[in-house]
Amino acid sequence: MLDSPGEPTRSEVSSAFFQALGGELMTLPAGSETAAHFGSVEAEYGALADGVGVVARNWIDHLRVRGEDRQAFLNGKVTCELDGRVPGEGAYGFLLDAKGHIQADTTIRVLEDAIWLELPTGRGPSVGEHLNRFIVLDRVEIEPLDGLMPLTVVGSKARATLESVFEPALLPDRPWQVCHLAIESGSGREVLVSSDGRWGMPALTLWSRASDAAEIVSRLQDAGRPFGARLVGYQALDRFRIEAGIPWFGRDFGEANLPQETGEDEAVSYTKGCYLGQEVVARLHYRGQVSKVLCGLRFEADEVPVPGTALVLEDRPAGTLTSVTFSPRMGSVVGIAMLQRRAAQLGTRLGVEGAGHAKVTKSPLAG
């Protein structure tokens, strides 16, 4: 079992785990403690850009949903299509309230005996309460999954790194695919490996027990040494995802937003059956459009503004900056912003409060 009774939780081992690896600790807004970096944000960013990085994502939350009605129950609560998904498959979607507002985004992994929900940091308890309110006669059990330490191998050499640890033919190779692989042949110890989307680069995650994480990190570092592998902290990863225009719940969108405002089209099925919040989502899709949407920005200034900075078009408010960083690959400041639709056309030049101007892009790297 990957998550067994009596196993230490992720939070119980995180501080000592990161300190033993030389990590500089930071506390996230939701209260989770993680590694800001392992000595050099620039070097870690370079590993992601040119080779491979290993990210211990201890800040994300998980729920495990069990019971024979689990798939049908969840299919009525998420925007993506779960009907027909078989063990080893997955999807990305949103959990909504009855008014169509996002409660969380989630990566869903279908296993033989359960369905896992990967959730934004700090959202596990509230999503668990949200889902439990709708259990009436459904044979469903929802519980936190706290004993895992997800180790994501990211970059152009991610797959090559794991091919030296596991049998290449057994590794997942389709978006959101998952499989169980043995840590050591004949040991009985196993790890779930997933092929992940929404990284802006190849990424595979090993869902190890927290107690096994240090050993697995050591093996990944050895396997990735020919490719310049490095441990990567939160700060370098955050820079990379902003460059790629990948929005995060709690940073770029939240409970006040509707799915179409995020631009995450793959997260919503417009052909599946009924789900919570569907009427609002369908009405917007077929009869109208949202008044605001997330976009990328390239700044015409060297100064890095702060999230929350106001953006203007023709001397009128046009939106708000949600994430921002300096991009070494582009040699400029880039960001993500929630913009009014009138300001969201590609190429539009916006005024940035106290920091010059910025041009609207599909995503910072895409232009």
Keywords:
single chain; 367 residues; alpha+beta; Gyrase A, domain 2; Elongation Factor Tu (Ef-tu), domain 3; 2 domains; six-stranded mixed sheet; six-stranded antiparallel beta barrel; 8 helices; 19 strands; 20% helix
Write up this protein.
- The protein is of the alpha+beta class.
- It has two domains: 1-290, Gyrase A, domain 2 (2-Layer Sandwich), CATH 3.30.1360.120; 291-361, Elongation Factor Tu (Ef-tu), domain 3 (Beta Barrel), CATH 2.40.30.110.
- 20% of the residues lie in helices and 31% in strands.
- The chain contains eight helices and 19 strands.
- The chain has helices at 10-20, 41-50, 70-75, 124-132, 158-163, 213-224, 234-243, 278-287; strands at 24-27, 33-37, 53-56, 61-66, 90-96, 102-110, 115-119, 141-144, 148-154, 178-182, 190-195, 203-209, 230-231, 292-299, 310-313, 316-327, 332-340, 349-352, 357-361.
- A six-stranded mixed sheet has the order 10-11-12-9-3-13. The chain has a six-stranded antiparallel barrel with strand order 14-17-16-15-18-19. Strands 5-6-7-4-8 form a five-stranded antiparallel sheet, covered by helices on one side.
- The mean pLDDT is 93.
| SSE-based structural type | alpha+beta
Helix content: 10-25%
- Please tell me how large the radius of gyration is: 21 Å
* Annotated CATH homologous superfamily of the largest domain: Probable tRNA modification gtpase trme, domain 1
**Average of per-residue pLDDT values:** 93
Q: Give the neighbour order of strands across the main sheet.
A: 10-11-12-9-3-13
Strand content: 25-35%
Number of strands: 19
Shape: globular
* Whole-number count of domains: 2
Spatial gap, N to C terminus: 45 Å
**Number of alpha- plus pi-helical segments:** 8
- What is the CATH class of the largest domain? Alpha Beta
Main beta sheet? 6 strands, mixed
